[in-house]
Amino acid sequence: MSNLLDRFNKMAVGSKGRISDYTARISAKGDFSRVDDIQAILSSWNNILLTPLRSYVFDPTYGSELYKYVFEPADSETAEAIKDEINYRLGLFDDRATVESIDIAFLRNYKGFTFNITAKYEGEVAELSAKIDESIYFNFTRVE
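-> structure tokens emitted (144 positions)
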């Protein structure tokens, strides 16, 4: 028996044969926005890459270790290691779209980096951009 969310997604108008999800982006109609196809995939990728590994209680293998590269040297070896981590985690958790390219840029004023991923899904191309900086590192490694 399918759960309520699966039934809701299947019964929603215009959802047949499409990947859809609801994100917490503010919209004029309420607190959640519906995203379809490649935008739903990019939302999933964003969650995977920005969730530190072992921080999700119900699945400690979910997430990535991108936060570990915050204090690494800003060189080509670190950029390649970041790309490898992104490709590995996306291949492990969500391979519905293909990664066309990954661009890494290190932050100048403080520790961290940004990444831009160009993805392709059924002929549609979109880009995901995010920033990993020392605040993510310190928030995760903080002991309470």
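The first strand starts at residue 20 and ends at 23.
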